[in-house]
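User: TetR/AcrR family transcriptional regulator, Corynebacterium mendelii:
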Amino acid sequence: MAGAVGRPRKNSPRRRGNTAREEILDAAAELFTKRGFATTSTHQIAEAVGIRQASLYYHFPSKTEIFLTLLSGTVEPARKLAERLAEVDASAQERLWALVAAESRLLYTTRWNVGRLYQLPIAASAEFADFREARDDLSQTFRDLAAIIVGDGDPRLDLPFHLAQSVTDMRPNNGQAPYTGKGIPEIAVVLADAALKVLDAELPKDRVPKTLDILSGLEDS
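Assistant: Predicted structure for TetR/AcrR family transcriptional regulator:
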């Protein structure tokens, strides 16, 4: 008798996640960040989850698609926030602070240090051109806000985006999120403050609660 699509587990669940898809992404995030893309196989990912390799392909058609899903998860939330901020009555300083804090928080609150995936050679390949374009668009949003504060052509325009991304180098990759609260971790506040200070911009009042209100609205929508 032909087997059903998505075969049974070989073992009981061993990864974090509410669904098999989430468990696959969790396992892949660990393997990609620790071993790299080229040396990680779909067989290894399936083994780490405790499912058969055929079952993995039911959720993801390829290893490339898994990698792309993880990459996109590091950019899409910030892009949605940028769209929301464009509709909010807030200064450029407030919007830039919120973007830096939110992007830093995202990269700091994942179980595995997925920001490392940007640094893998495969991320520069043609297969991920759409992701790089999305990331470039996000970077440009940071630049545009910085330009409102200091003017076009200022050599500091790229610094806020790089400061937000720098949290990747400040956290471990041990399967434990450095921060699991619902607020904004201290390191994200520090980096967002630094992004404005490097532009000689005044820090907005009530920046933390205002940012949390905006993020809460996104989560509820």
